[in-house]
Amino acid sequence: MRHVTGHFRGRFDRGVHLSRGEWRRFANDGSEPLTARSDLPARRLLARVFGALFLAGTVLFCLLAAGARPGSSPGRTFFAVYAAVCAAFVLVALVDLAVVRRRVQEQRRWGR
């Protein structure tokens, strides 16, 4: 934990400690553009759109796997594997949405 000093004094009360990650995230080293914008809205949009698409793919491949006849080509295993891959991508999108939500809350809390 690092003690808040320097250019952080105006933003925080005395005695507030930042973790190493928070210190790096919120420390300005002068190399940032003045008009920089957050990428969080774009990440949220992409996670929502592709999460929904992969969820639809999961349902579709599950239905195709359920309707596949034994010995048909492609077989039930083929569709089940694709359903599992789509389900994994849905989980990745959900985790990304949770991370984006937490970071947006941090930005609001820190006044950025």
Contiguous helical run count: 3
What's the order of the H and E elements?
Answer: EEHHH
Which stretches are poorly predicted, pLDDT < 50 over at least 5 residues?
Answer: 6-10
> What is the CA-based Rg, rounded?
22 Å
Strand order of the largest sheet: 1-2
The counted number of beta strands is 2
Oligomer: single chain
**Proportion of residues in extended strands:** under 5%
Largest sheet: 2 strands, antiparallel
| Shape descriptor | elongated
- Domain unit count: 2
Provide a descriptive summary of the structure in words.
With 112 residues, the chain is mainly α. It has two domains: 1-34, no CATH class; 37-112. It is built from three helices and two strands; from the N terminus they run ββααα. A two-stranded antiparallel sheet has the order 1-2. Residues 6-10 have low confidence and may be disordered.
Q: Would you summarize the structure shown here?
A:
This protein has helices at residues 20-26, 40-67, 76-110; strands spanning 2-3, 17-18.
